[in-house]
Every structure is written in structure tokens, then in C-alpha cells.
Amino acid sequence: MGTTGMRFQQGRMDAGFTLSEVAVALDIDARYLFALEEESYDDLPGKTFAIGYAKTYASYLGLNPKKIAEEIMKEIGYDESSFINSSLEKRLFKPEDHIEKRNKQWEDVSQRSARHRRLLVSILITLAVLALFSFFGSRLWV
Questions:
Q1: CB–CB of 43/76 below 8 Å?
Q2: Percent of the chain with pLDDT over 70
Q3: Tens digits of per-residue pLDDT, 14-54?
């Protein structure tokens, strides 16, 4: 166990918490917290999760989350700039795509609304005509 894991474990024990108590409080699976304490980063769902869980755990224990995250990034070889500059990220987060998709959704909603308004108006006109016929029809029979 390295220094980061020892700080987690020592901080938790100094605070008087069990691993289960911290897991419930943070809503993080206890096995992931254990992996952080043992520095078994391969047991975590991914590098991003390792860093996020470590920051959350560090904050909860009153440790410096930024410093711990930097240490873990070095240990696991996580480079934020490589993620940000990856072609996958560029494809997933092109603002134009989101704007076009949102505009298409609004067009669909407005078209459905217009159809519903036309249907409602035709129903109201039909009811008004029927009401007039029944009113005048009742007057003719009297």
C-alpha cells in the first residue's frame, strides 16, 4: 500500500468510520473505497471514476482532494488533456450537433402542437354546430 492509500485508511480510522459507513454516506460501493485504500485502481470502473471517487473520499475525510487526485493521476497515467483532445470527445460533444438535435425536437413539438390545436378547433366547431342544431331543433318542436 502506498502513501495515498495509507492516507485514506488512516483518515478513515482517525475519524472512527468503518468502510461500510463511509460507503453508505458517500453512496459509493465499499469495494471501490477498499480499492482506493489498497491502491488497486484496476478494480475501479475506470480512470475517471478512480479520480472522482478519490476526490469525494478525500473531501469526506478532510484531506486535500486536489493533491490526492494529482497523485493518483500520476500513478495511473491519467492525462486529462489526452481525453479532452481525443477524437471521441470531439465527436460526442460537437455543439452544432446538440443544437441541431434540439432544434429538430422543438420543430417536432411545435408541429404536434399545431396539429392538436387544429383538432381542438374542429372539435369545438362541431360541438357548437351540434348545440345550435339541438337548440333550434327543440324550438321547432315546441
A1: no
A2: 85
A3: 999 999 999 999 999 999 999 999 998 889 888 888 999 99
Distances (CA, A) of 57 to 53, 60, 78, 82, 120: 6, 5, 19, 25, 56
Nearest Cα neighbor of 29 from 11, 52, 13, 10 is 52
User: What's the residue count for the chain?
Assistant: 142
Query: Do 52 and 41 form a contact (C-beta atoms < 8 A)?
Result: no
Separation CA 19–CA 25 (nearest Å): 10
Q: Looking at the chain, list the stretches that DSSP marks H as alpha helix, in order from N- to C-terminal side.
A: 3-15, 19-26, 30-38, 47-61, 65-76, 80-84, 87-92, 95-141
Residue in this structure with the C-alpha cell 348545440, named with its chain if needed: 131
Amino acid 136 reads: F
pTM, whole model, 2 decimals?
0.56
- Answer whether 29's CB lies under 8 Å from 19's CB: no
* Tens digit of each residue's pLDDT (9 = 90 or more) over 40-98: 888 988 888 899 999 999 999 999 999 998 999 888 887 766 555 555 555 565 666 66
Phi, psi for residue 38 in degrees, rounded to 5: -90, -5
